[in-house]
Write a structure and sequence with these properties.
Strand content: 15-25%
Oligomer: single chain
Largest sheet: 8 strands, parallel
Order of helices and strands: EEEEEEEEEEEEEEEE
Shape: elongated
Number of helices: 0
Length: 383
Amino acid sequence: MLDGTAGNNIITVTGGAVNGTVNGLAGNDTIKVTGVAGAAGTNGPPGADGTAGTPAGDAGGNGGAGNVGGAGVGSTGVIDGGAGTDSITVTGGAGGAGGNGGQGGTGFASGAGGAGGNGGVGGIGGAGNAGNVTGGAGSDTATFTAGRGGNGGLGGPGGNSGLVAGGAGAGGIGGAGAAGGVGNSGTFTGDLGDPGLDTVTANGGAGGTGAAGGVGGCGHGGGAGGVGGAGGAGGTGNSGTITGGAGIDTLKANGGLGGNGGVGGKGGNGLAAVQPGGAGGVGGAGGAGGIGSSGTLTGGTGVDIITATGGKGGNGAGGGNGGTGCSGPGGPGGIGGAAGAGGLGNSGTINDGADTIATPAGTSGLAGGSGVAGINNGGICTC
């Protein structure tokens, strides 16, 4: 338990979630809590090169997933602002980034190149408040913001083929961005007999960005570019319960932004005469915007202003460009990623019919454009 004094306290908690009790007591207190960021995933190892006995190169290893961000206030945590005009800010930790995929091994003589490893997915963002927060008497401001989802790891490049023959390795798939955390999955309660003007905001975390697909290797037929990772979904603003007091309170629940998709990898080039370039990878789709509120919003006895807003969808990424052909056709460009849908404003319960209530949905993102087709460069073989 951590108790303040009767004065104006400044209480800051970092390095872990609040799983006990924090009491601000009387006074105009400032309480800030920040969850721990998740650790990044490990990178995948490169694939072994081919040998005379085993001509084909090995695939690169996949990147590890990022770890989940920590909550600001855990499920057993309690914050009581007490009397006074208090400011309570709770922020969840960001999810860790996914590790990068390893490069595919190079083929020996007539051996094919190894495929690039796939990138790891990001870690989910931590919740803002998963416990019980009470504002107490007075005009309080409480803001709960979830952690951002971790970005995906890059897809590994495909390995080149041997110089005599063999197809090139495809680029690895880019890791998907993770979903943002939930702003409030617990409970906030204003003082039901308090005429103060409380402002309570719950923000879902933004979805992580999908990573680019790996570049295809060069070979007797260039390798295809890897598919870009999808963007993570935005987190829900409120999935718990938020209740104001007797005053004219302002309650807001905002869905998180959907993450943008990752660019499709470029197709590999033809390595010898009459060899075509590889196809560009498909761009990653944008993540859906988060729901404003799927829980319960209750203003209290006053004529309150309640708004639940869906998050904007993420943008789809462009497709990868096709590889260059060597006296052969260039590879086709990859298709762009789809747009992420906007989130619903409210799918839960909003009480108090006399209040001013708005539930706008989020707007959709933009679709990604297609990649540019590769060219036939007339016999000049480049990698």
